[in-house]
User: What shape does this take?
Amino acid sequence: MVDHLNPEPGRERSRTPEPMPAAPDTAADREVAVGPLVGRPTEAVQQWLDGELPAAEARRANPREVQLWDRITEETERRRRMTTPAPLLENVMKAITPAEQQAPGLMDRIKRALGGEK
Assistant: This one.
């Protein structure tokens, strides 16, 4: 059984919201040029990164992008040469149980991942 919760007499049926009138479309359909793609290297810089073009030509096309990629390369090389400090590697090795140490290849993978033995 449904209880009648509407206190006003004569309003037995439920009220449905009236549809809103459509707002006039003020924006016209038009094409807008967005310029060069943001976040994508220019063609000359892309060719330089692929090794197809000398750096001097890429610098003429877009010196800021070449400078950015030079810095990225320097940072990558610096991080590639980094190794894990010996105390950290020793602490990791101490935390591994003897049973885990017996797993084939596990110790080599751990040492390589931490930058220890190569």
Notes: The mean pLDDT is 75. The chain is about 45% helix and 0% strand. The radius of gyration is 33 Å.
